[in-house]
Amino acid sequence: MSNPVYALNLFDVTSKDEYLTYARRSADEVKTHGGRVVALGKFREAAVGDIEPRNVLILVQWESKQAFENYRDDPALADLHPHRVNGTDGYVWHLFDKLEDLRPILKEHD
After folding, report:
1. In this structure, what DSSP letter does residue 53 have?
2. Which residue in 21, 62, 89, 107 has its CB near the most CB atoms, within 10 A?
3. What is the C-alpha separation between 92 and 39, in angstroms, rounded?
4. Is 90 left (phi over 0), alpha (psi -120 to 50) or beta?
5. Using CA atoms, how far apart are residues 40 and 42, in angstroms rounded to an integer?
6. 21-27: average pLDDT
7. Where are the domains of the chain?
8. How many other β-carbons are positioned within 10 Å of the β-carbon of residue 29?
């Protein structure tokens, strides 16, 4: 993989039917487009920070930012993404570059 990115998904489910319609199909589509679910989580508690808690966490590793964008923008999936939108609330979708360690970030502050 070259330049993989992580997509952090945080959200609340507001319609189980809508979200399940999205989830059933998106699992295969994520793989087809170069993504791999790394972690799934259910909110436990806020330990530190001021972000509004969300009930669900999904962390997806994408082969590249382009792979993520291809999934997000694929016209063949135009009927899929509205199920995610309609089935969730407070959706946070942030991209992070994959790092082997924190040296690149720490060097920025020298």
Report:
1. P
2. 62
3. 16
4. left
5. 7
6. 96
7. 5-108
8. 15
The amino acid present at 15, given as its one-letter code, is S
The strand pairing partners of 20, in sequence order, are: none
Model pTM? 0.89
- Residue 63 DSSP code: S
DSSP 71-110: HHH-GGGTTTHHHHHHHEEEEEEEEEE--SSSHHHHHHT-
Domain spanning 5-108, CATH class: alpha beta
Which pLDDT score, from 0 to 100, does residue 96 have? 96
- 1 — pLDDT class (breaks 50, 70, 90): very low
Q: Provide the residue type at 58 as one letter.
A: I
Number of Cα atoms under 13 Å in the Cβ half of residue 31: 5
Give the Cα separation of 38 and 106 in Å (integer).
25
